[in-house]
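Researcher: Re-running this chain for the archive, since the previous output was lost when a drive failed. Same request as before.
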Amino acid sequence: MVLSTHPLAVEIAAGVTAGAAKTLALYPLDTLTTLREVGLIKRTAHPLVRLRESYAGCVLAVIGIVPYAVCFHAAFYLCEVALAHFAVVGFLSNICCGTCGAIAAAAVGVPIECLKHRIQLQADGYTTPALALSSTLRAEGIRGLYRGLGSTLARNVPYNALHFGVFAMAANAFRCAALPGSDALAGAVAGAITALLTTPLDLINTRLQTQRILTVPGSAANLTGVADALVRVAGEEGGFGALMRGANLRMATYAPSALIFFFVYEGIKRRMLSRLLVGG
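Model: Regenerated structure tokens:
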């Protein structure tokens, strides 16, 4: 038997393709979530957000999927293989693998997301990827690209741990119940639950990454970190509800986003892995 493709390459290819599919399909909702979290819009829809503006930063986000997915899914796969030696599979394995992937991908993911958030606001000097990069480097240096590193990890570690963990548990339950489209349904469930639970951390991350270029009047300013931001946003902007701003939009985005991701991701892995062994 001859291996035509390494399983690691399959994992990365599936991750890149699925990530691009979900990003392209639902990017306008991601933009609306960003605007809602910083307080630029007060409702979950807004007539002034034109189609072109809703895709601001989309090209950067899609391009950024490649290095992000390589780091994330390489770590995910290696962790999965290591845990399999100890017979750790399913829910617990996916939690650990999602955690490792989130940590490994932070170095490339944070600068991309920071720039994407700033472009989505369309502030002067931040309307395109090139302008946003040059403005950030000129004003803040390389450190500016890593604004929100701590908050990104604080959000992404539990998000990805739960995302892949809940997916594994839900997919197993749906398969046992012989439900059609079990991967897609499990993805939607995992996406909705994890989006809701991590909304406060996502809001804080967005605020920390964008406050240097725009702070809406009445919003907490000069936030210094995750703990400071959580306390001050809640204290100065109306309690815990302020931290859940954009929760409905996040759930409306991440449920179908995760449905698309896992449908594509699992489908590609099954198809490619079924062709791994040739001549046998």
